[in-house]
Every structure is written in C-alpha cells, then in structure tokens.
Predict the structure.
Amino acid sequence: MKKVSAWLLAGMLLLLVGASGMAQQYNLQFRVDQDANTASGDFDVTLRIAANDTANVFELGSCNLVFDYNTASLTAPGLIGPGPDSLMIQTIHNFSGGNYQKLRLTQPSAGRLSLNIELNSPGSGTTVLPTFMDIATIRFSIVDEGQPENLAWRTASPNATLVFDQNETALALADSLYGPALLANLKVFLEGPYDSTSNTMATGINDQGFLPLIHPFSQSPWSYGKVDTATSIPADIVDWVLIELRTGTSATDSIDSRAALLKSNGSIVDLNGSSPVTFNVPAGNYYVVIYHRNHLGVMSASAVSMAKTAPAAQFDFSSGLSQYFNGFGAHELETNVWGMIGADANSDGGVYAEDYTQYRSNQGNEGYEPADYNLDGGVYAEDYTMYRKNQGEETNVTMPVSITPPPPPTAPTRIFQGNKDKIQNENKIFQKTAKRKTTKNKEN
C-alpha cells in the first residue's frame, strides 16, 4: 500500500511538544506487522509504548491511546465485548488482566480509534522502560491498497491521547510520536557456537542462565546509550547483538542502532524474542552492521532494502562471502555457510595478543565471559583453539567510536580439570606483528 508521510507528521508533533514546554515522559509507536496489500486483506498494527529515557521510567496507570487512520484505506475491526461499543483486539500483549482491566478498543468517530487501559488500583502499575513494549495488535481490513493509511497519534481535543502513571498523575505529552516503524529482517551466524551437525548455534550461556536481560554494549567501543532490556530470554536465544544502520560505508554515516537478540537459527529478533527488530528511520536502503561482544563486526556488501510493512526479504549474511562488505571478513563454517569470526575478547576489531591475555586471565572461569569464544558458558581449551586459529584476523568495518580497550581482567587464573584438555605451552607469548594480516577468504 502507499505509505503515510509519517516523518512529516512526527516532525510537526515534535514541534508542538517542544513548544508546550512540558516535561518529556514517554514515546508511542506503531509497528505494522502485516500488510496483505490487497482489498479485503489484513493490515495488522501493534501499538507500543516506551519511557523517554532512564530518568523518565514510570509505572503505567490508566490511559487512552488515541490515533487516526484513513477510512479510504482501512476499515476498523468489528464489534465485540466486553462493552456494546467495544471493537475486536487481535492480540493483547501487556497491560491487560491481573492489575489491569481487560483492554478495550473503541471508535470515538469514523477514522479514529481509542485503546483504553485501566489500572485496578493505584500503585500497582507495570514498569515502562526506555524500550518499546507491545500493548496490543489491531487488525484492520484493507479497503483500497492504493490509499495511504495515515496512521497518526492524536494530541489535541477532542479525543486527545492521555497517559497517567500508577498514582493517577497525568504524564506530559510524548517526546516522540512515531509513525510506522522500519522492520529489519536479518540473519547471521557466529563462528564460536555454530554446530555443523544441526546447522544451528548452541545456546550454552542461555541454558546455564548466564545470559543477561540487558545488552552488553554500553561500554567502549560501542558506547550504545539505549537501555534495551528484555523481560525474559526465550530458550532459543544465543546472545545479544548490536545492529547499526548506515547511509554509507563510513562510521560517520551511522543513522540508528538497536540492541537485539540472536536466535539459534541465525534470525535476529526484537526484545520479545520473536518480532522483527524495529528502527525509527524512514523506509529505504541501508548498510547493515552487526556487532557482537567477542566476534569481529561485519557489514553488508551493499545497502539493504527495509520497509515499514511486513519485513522485506531477509538479508542472510550466512549465505555467502559476497554478502559481506568488500567480500571478506567472515569464515566458512561449513560448505556454503558463512559466519562472524570469533576470539575478539576486548572488542578492538582484531584477534591479537590481548585476546590471548583475556583467555589466560579468565581460564576456567564460567559465566558471561568475554573470552568464552564458543559461548558454552566457560573459558576452556576450545576457546584457546579458536584464538590460535583466528590470530591476526581483523574486521573490515570502521568502528563507531575511538576504541578504548577495557581494563585487563582481575579474576585469578584457574586451571580447568575434568574432561577439558589442559593447554600445553601456556607460557608462550603471542606478540602483535608489525604488519597484521587481514582476512581475505575466498568462496570455494
């Protein structure tokens, strides 16, 4: 369908918010999950909310989230309970049941819907973090796929959006009222946990409960400032990754970044563990950079198409070396399957002596360890083997900021026992060479 000029609308709303002088509190967003792009087909939209930043985290109370749509493009859902004027909600995600009444969707007038959230008693609201939370998915029927949907949050009377915290204090107008979010459909494999028998990645650190609910990219070299937090980690998640969109190939071309979760099949998903990752940038073509905490960063060979409706065709980094910028920067994990190169413990963009030092200093430790290159939950002989194999490899991606390596680990060295083979010649020191080699693998 023809897309709404969401950015013009959002910009106008931001000007209104700025002129009001009111405190910034929350953000609202549409995510288009399905667009059949044909008359009588389904058009699914998920309504989402987030705190504006860490200083504005709040517990959600009762509220009315009101938005307009184009009746020449879409038809509202049909009537259903609990009230005689309530419309059908396709899927309820949060803020319904328990401490809340059941979510209720009404239509104050043609081309306008109101999602009503009602907290049962003060002081019992659910916390809203600076990470978008899904509230409810609404299914429209398409009238004319050639007409724009014109989804837009209402900020003025009548039927303005009103949001209260759990103590019935009205919150300020949203800092950002986003139009439909851009959806990223991406796949990548990590060399360390990849299993050629199952053609998937192992979930060792997740299985053992070591995978944190918050991303690990706040420190250098990424210095990612958003507080992207998962409420739970599904069983098929391998680890966190950081996605960066660029308008060009240089780090200065960065336009947006998001922390996301990597599934064992290589799919990258949003913080709920299933939805596509969303970005608040215009639809278009972007170079995609993927970072991992101990694998070398990679970038797409060319700009990738991204849309605001159902995700565009998947960009699969694993399908060939030609998917990577300049045609190198990955290893062949098995025949015709490619993945990010492991063993960069200090995330400086290369596999050098410092990464061996990280291994030595943490040898035998278990947990969410930088030197756990195969992500099995511990720093063992297999990690040393990967370091030796990849020593001297470098990323071909310009890093987002000046790199300041993390301080050397302080944990005591422990020699592992049991079924882990003891590394011999551990006192061998690996020095950086004057000329570091680069990875230039060629497809067979």
In short: Confidence is low (pLDDT under 50) at residues 2-24, 401-444. The chain has two domains: 6-180, 184-390. The chain has four helices and 26 strands.
